[in-house]
Amino acid sequence: MTLPYDRPMSERQKDIAQHLPAGEALLLDYLHKLERHRQGRRAVLVRLSALQPVNRRDQHIRIAISTFDPLIKQLKGQIFALSNADLMFIFKEGALHDVENVIVKLRFMFSEDPALSEEPAGRKTTFLDWFQLERDYDALLHLAQRLISEGDRRRTEETQTAAGARAPRRPQSRGNALTADMLARLEEALTGADLANVLRRQAVSAIIGNSDPQAVFYELFISIADLRETLLPSVNLASSPWLFQQLTETLDRRVLSLLNRHDDSTITGDISINLNVQTLLSPEFLVFDDNIKAATRGTQVLELQKVDIFADLGAFLFARDFAHDRGYRICIDGVNMESLPFVDRMKLGIDLVKIVWDPAMTAGTLPNGGLIEDYIRRCGPSRSILCRCDGQEAIDFGQSVGITLFQGRHVEQLLAASQKRSLYARRR
Description:
By secondary structure, the chain is of the alpha/beta class. The protein has 19 helices and 14 strands. 47% of the residues lie in helices and 16% in strands.
């Protein structure tokens, strides 16, 4: 039987669901309709409310809801967005594996949050709770009723708090928050600015045993700290993740423009550049691609952030195939201990994984109980880069698990010392 709520939501219903207070009422109404149709249906409660505030803003909730869209369009289930930021997805049992795949994506997207990093992936956790409607119907019904009561109480408290507010909060010591108006002025200033003075490069080097590091390629990036000091010294550019994301897309285009007109071989040789997925699909990248020699594409790496990849997996897959067809290599950047178990290089079809060094890695295990050495073996030691290596401890550990590619301030110091010795030897 197909129930009214099994149909895809209309635009009006989506609007109601994303204006969260109606979510509990819709859920309770749906459960009442399911009373005689419980068999073969399940539910999963995704507790976004357990995440840190910075990870459960409206934008994050919308992205989380959108991950269920394919299942909703296929009439496999229905999503309910609750006023406490949680999501309830009720689905047909045959879609269980599809739902589990969506949950893997959500875990990956929020993998840096303590709510996920401190627990193994399981059936019932702080982040998730699963239900079989045939068995758990009464418990689910009571939960929906309790959520309505809690939502009413929370909205009353928020109204009282808002009424008592008299003055805005003072800006944090790290700088004023970035606003949309500030971003617009900054983007206008960047249009004609020469960013060569804030363009930095850092080597990704091969280090085998006690030998001197050998630079394999150089990552080119804009120094956000220097950019801030130059253009908006009193503003914290990273205060809003979504405005900062838009800023990085603007910077991507400016970096591509800079590379297009630069004739320095140290800039246009074996390099990696950080790009957003949308930039990789932009006209600016096509101009960049047209201006470089075909023979050099195989030595150039495009680094993409993991959050950007999973925010729109379809766009990433298209961009990945386009880049590979043109001869570029793809690297997923910013992978830490918490997200490492969810990054399968082979399944994602990428060439390199950049892992952020953490002293906790010396224990040898990942938060899900897996061994780091086993992950490196599956990923490929020559496909793994350990970055942010600020001391010898990072390199020693990386070598102990088979990693040969390193990046960071300590690597730069080793390179500089090696180059100084070579220069001294030639002068003798």
